[in-house]
Prior knowledge:
By secondary structure, the chain is of the alpha+beta class. It folds into three domains: 4-86, Uridine Diphospho-n-acetylenolpyruvylglucosamine Reductase, domain 2 (2-Layer Sandwich), CATH 3.30.43.10; 88-216, 2-Layer Sandwich (Uridine Diphospho-n-acetylenolpyruvylglucosamine Reductase, domain 3), CATH 3.30.465; 219-301, UDP-N-acetylenolpyruvoylglucosamine reductase, C-terminal domain (Uridine Diphospho-n-acetylenolpyruvylglucosamine Reductase, domain 1). It has helices at 4-10, 46-55, 87-91, 109-118, 134-140, 170-173, 200-217, 237-243, 272-290, and strands at 18-24, 36-42, 62-64, 71-73, 78-83, 93-96, 100-104, 121-122, 143-144, 147-148, 153-159, 165-169, 187-194, 196-197, 223-224, 250-251, 254-256, 264-266, 299-301. The strands form six sheets. Strands 6-7-13-11-12 form a five-stranded antiparallel sheet. The chain has a four-stranded mixed sheet with strand order 1-2-5-3, with helices on one face. It has a four-stranded antiparallel sheet with strand order 15-18-17-16. A hairpin with a 2-residue loop joins strand 9 and strand 10. The longest helix has 19 residues, at 272-290. The chain is globular, with a radius of gyration of 20 Å.
Amino acid sequence: MTSTAQEITGTMQGLRGRLNFDQPLAPTTWFRVGGAAEVMFTPADEDDLAAFLQQLPREIPVSVLGLASNTIVRDGGIPGVTLRLGGRAFGAITVEEGHRLRAGTAAPDMRVAQAAAEAGIDGLAFFRGIPGSIGGALRMNAGAHGGETTDVMVTAHGFDRAGNKVSFSHDEMGFAYRHCSIADDIIFTSALFQGRPGEPHAIEAEMARITAAREAAQPIREKTGGSTFRNPPGGKAWQLIDKAGCRGLVIGDAQVSQMHCNFLINRGAATAADIEALGEEVRRRVMEQSGIALHWEIKRVGVAR
C-alpha cells in the first residue's frame, strides 16, 4: 500500500487515541478474512476524532469499521484511514426521560436491546436479533423480527469529513429498506431512540424468543456475515437462492450455508475473494433461473489483491 496516509498521520499533533499502521483486519471480522488497514485510528473521544479529521487532508480516504459483522474486507486491505470507534466515549448507553435511550454508535445492538429491556422501554427488542453495532444500524436501517431502525430513531449525531459536528433528524436520514441517504463520509457517533412503556419481564421474554428463533434458523456459530442479499420486493432472497440450486454451493473454502442459504460461510481457509466470488455466482444463477437481480446487503470494502 502507499505510505502517504501513514506519513501524514504519523506526524499529526495532539492525538490521544491509538494510531496503528498495517493493522490486520481479518481477526476482527466475522468472516475472518481480509487484508490490513493502511492506517487504523481509534479516537479517544469526539474531540479527538474532530482533531484528527481536521488535520487529515481531504484526499486521504476514510472508512469506518464497526463490529464487521456484515462486512467483507477484501484481501488487499483498506487504503487510507480506517476509523474504529470504541470504548466508553462511543459505546455508552444512557436512559433518558420519556422512554428514550441514547447510544453511542460503537454500542452493540444486542446491548442496546438489553439496556432498553432493563429500563422498561419497549419497541427496541428487535435489536436483539441484529449482530452489529448502532453505527451500522443507522447506516443500513438494520432490522429484524418485525422492527427496523427507522421505527425508533429520533436523531443521529456525528461529524463530517472536515471534523464539524452534524446532526440529522429522522426525516433527514432518508431511511429505506436496508438504506439511509446520508453521505458516506459522515461518521455517526451517537443516536437517540424513542421507545414506549413496557414491562421488563415481557420484553425479556420477547428477546428470548428472538434469540431462540435466530439460533434455530441461522448459522450463527459459523464464520459468517449475516444476511448476504437484500430481499427483493415481494420476495425472499433465500427462496430464490434455494430455487436456483445454490444451497451448499462451494467456491474455494467459501460455502452457501446448508442451514440458511442467504448466509455465506468461511469453512476455515476461505479468502475474501472466495466469499465474494461465491456471492457473485449465486447472483448469476438466481438471475439465470428467476430473472431477478439480487443486491448485496453485506458491505464489501477495500481492494482486491
